[in-house]
């Protein structure tokens, strides 16, 4: 295609350009380095509390049909760390239960809150914690 070579050449040239001092986030000196640092930072949740993690990647819905669950408001949070790490961050199961209760209350009183955790390194098993209007159960 006409001009394709010039575009690729320009892209390669940009990759070699040194960033100005003010743009050097995390010590990145070039655009590829900056991109790598920003992508890594995107998944750094080390400073977040359990409550903040429950709000980070969250979806909510409401069941409007059916007899037993009509009007049930529920939410699910995708947690980007393992269940043991989440429990540790929460100060144990009691702390996680309190964080889930607070998250449910902040969402206007959910009847059910689920937290799906990242797979563990050994076995690749994901964790699921359920809070149902008064308690948390994990498995």
UniProtKB/TrEMBL annotation:
Pfam families: DHHA2 (PF02833). Coiled coil: none annotated. Residues 37-121 form the DHHA2 domain. InterPro entries: DHHA2, DHHA2_dom_sf. Transmembrane segments: none annotated. GO terms for cellular component: cytoplasm. GO terms for molecular function: pyrophosphatase activity. This is DHHA2 domain-containing protein. It comes from Emiliania huxleyi.
């Amino acid at each position: 295609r006409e001009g394709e070579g010039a575009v690729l050449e320009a892209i390669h040239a940009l990759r070699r350009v040194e960033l100005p001092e003010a743009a050097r986030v995390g010590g990145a000196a070039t655009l590829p380095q900056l991109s790598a640092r920003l992508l890594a930072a995107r998944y750094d949740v080390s400073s977040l509390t359990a409550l903040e993690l429950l709000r980070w990647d969250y979806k909510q819905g409401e069941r409007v049909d059916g007899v037993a669950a009509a009007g049930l408001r529920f939410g699910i949070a995708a947690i980007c760390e393992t269940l043991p790490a989440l429990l540790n961050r929460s100060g144990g199961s009691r702390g996680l239960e309190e964080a889930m209760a607070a998250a449910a209350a902040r969402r206007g009183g959910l009847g059910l809150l689920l937290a799906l955790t990242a797979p563990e390194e050994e076995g690749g098993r994901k964790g699921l914690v359920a809070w149902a209007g008064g308690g948390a159960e994990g498995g």
